[in-house]
């Protein structure tokens, strides 16, 4: 006597009848019937299309005078099968209704393959001024499900400092993105920042390029020497006086400019020679000044900057006092042939005067 199929079971059933399959990976589905006589014929369907020709040959197993029929389908994940259902159905007696398994939804997972960090700077180096902020963005290519992005600076996970992630749907896929607002810290100089992401458990993480953070330290002090007395330096006309200008520690090296009486005289200075001090720099410049009468009471100063857009830092102003030596001194009267006659008991007034000089001269008799 024939015994019709009454149950057919598909496995795996997944969670809530959803099975995850990574695109390109395989997932084996099995379909088996309850006891019947004769053996049943099993057919497979994906998205309503009969896929039985892709299943392995069926092998009914006798159980006494009845049979358990089973079939195996090795499915390869395809993006266009996402959210389609797979099921099997069986019949063993002509004219009877087919018995259908539960429908299983195929969730085709699409791994993240690319992740991009911006800005990338120049040659993968991004400048950040110490104390200033720089926003870094990380975004993935299309994937399913949305990816989870993590941030690293100098090898340390900084994800907790990033803003909440906001995956954007694009059809049935997602672009995942994350934003990290970084505040420049001196100790992060030359460390790398990167992001990495994964969206499927067990898959390797995908890493962005590494960006080197160049932390700029602005110049805050600049010193001119000599400062003289009360910021006044004496220079004899025609003589030389060397002025030096040096900055505090900064990164990168600073560019120093010189001014006398408001006029830029940097082209008269010697080539600048920055001095490395650890990972920072002391910048310095030397100006050999030749005293000129028209510079009397003018000020000399230097100023510097090492980061574009920052305010220049200015040294104190030094007043140049140009000294002019006495070159002539005249006594009168000179008499005849430098002989002056004076009668005993009489008076004779002698006068002594210098040519122009600065400061006033001290005359001795």
Task: Describe the protein in words.
The chain is an all-beta fold and 365 residues long. The protein has four domains: 8-109, Immunoglobulin-like (Sandwich); 115-216, Immunoglobulin-like, CATH 2.60.40.10; 222-323, Immunoglobulin-like, CATH 2.60.40; 325-365, no CATH class. Helices cover 0% and strands 46% of the residues. It is built from no helices and 35 strands. Strands 2, 4, 5, 9, 10 and 11 form a six-stranded mixed β-sheet that branches. The radius of gyration is 46 Å and the shape is rod-shaped.
Low-confidence stretches: none
Q: What is the 3D form?
A: rod-shaped
Class of the largest domain in CATH? Mainly Beta
Global structural class: mainly beta
- How many distinct beta strands? 35
CATH superfamily of the largest domain: Immunoglobulins
Question: What do we call the CATH topology of the largest domain?
Answer: Immunoglobulin-like
Ends distance: 156 Å
Number of helices: 0
How many structurally independent domains? Answer: 4
Task: Give the topology.
Layout: E1 8-11, E2 18-22, E3 26-33, E4 41-46, E5 49-50, E6 61-63, E7 66-68, E8 70-76, E9 85-91, E10 99-100, E11 104-109, E12 115-118, E13 125-129, E14 133-140, E15 148-153, E16 156-157, E17 168-170, E18 173-175, E19 177-183, E20 192-198, E21 206-207, E22 211-216, E23 222-225, E24 232-236, E25 240-247, E26 255-260, E27 263-264, E28 275-277, E29 280-282, E30 284-290, E31 299-305, E32 313-314, E33 318-323, E34 329-332, E35 351-354
Parallel strand pairs: 2-11, 13-22, 24-33
Antiparallel strand pairs: 1-3, 3-8, 4-5, 4-9, 6-7, 9-10, 9-11, 12-14, 14-19, 15-16, 15-20, 17-18, 20-21, 20-22, 23-25, 25-30, 26-27, 26-31, 28-29, 31-32, 31-33, 34-35
């Amino acid at each position: 006597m024939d015994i019709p199929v009454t149950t057919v079971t598909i496995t795996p059933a997944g969670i809530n009848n959803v099975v995850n399959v990574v695109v390109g990976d395989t997932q084996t589905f099995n379909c088996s019937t309850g006891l019947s006589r004769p053996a049943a014929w099993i057919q497979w369907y994906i998205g309503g299309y009969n896929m039985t020709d892709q299943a392995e040959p069926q092998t009914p197993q006798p159980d006494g005078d009845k049979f358990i029929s089973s079939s195996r389908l090795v499915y390869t994940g395809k993006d266009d099968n996402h959210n389609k259902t797979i099921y099997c159905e069986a019949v063993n007696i002509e004219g009877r209704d087919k018995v259908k398994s539960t429908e299983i939804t195929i969730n085709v997972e699409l791994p993240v393959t690319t992740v991009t960090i911006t800005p990338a700077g120049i040659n993968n180096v991004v400048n950040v001024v110490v104390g200033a902020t720089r926003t870094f963005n990380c975004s993935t290519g299309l994937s399913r499900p949305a990816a989870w992005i993590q941030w690293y600076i100098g090898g340390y996970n900084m994800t907790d400092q990033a803003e909440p992630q906001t995956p954007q749907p694009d059809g049935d896929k997602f672009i995942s993105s994350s934003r990290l607002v970084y505040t420049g810290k001196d100790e992060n100089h030359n460390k790398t920042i990167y992001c990495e992401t994964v969206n499927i458990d067990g898959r390797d993480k995908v890493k962005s390029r590494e960006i080197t953070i160049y932390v700029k330290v602005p110049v805050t002090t600049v010193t001119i020497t000599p400062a003289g007395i009360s910021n006044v330096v004496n220079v004899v006309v025609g003589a030389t006086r060397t002025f030096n200008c040096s900055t505090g520690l900064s990164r990168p090296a600073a560019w120093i400019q010189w001014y006398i009486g408001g006029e830029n005289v940097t082209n008269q200075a010697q080539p600048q020679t920055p001095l490395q001090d650890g990972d920072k720099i002391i910048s310095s410049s030397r100006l050999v000044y030749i005293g000129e009468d028209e510079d009397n009471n003018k000020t000399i100063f230097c100023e510097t900057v090492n980061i574009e857009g920052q305010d220049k830092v200015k040294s104190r102003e030094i007043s140049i006092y140009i000294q002019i030596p006495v070159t002539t001194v005249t006594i009168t009267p000179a008499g005849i042939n430098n002989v002056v006659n004076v009668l005993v008991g009489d008076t004779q007034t002698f006068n002594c005067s210098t040519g122009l000089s600065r400061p006033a001269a001290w005359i001795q008799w």
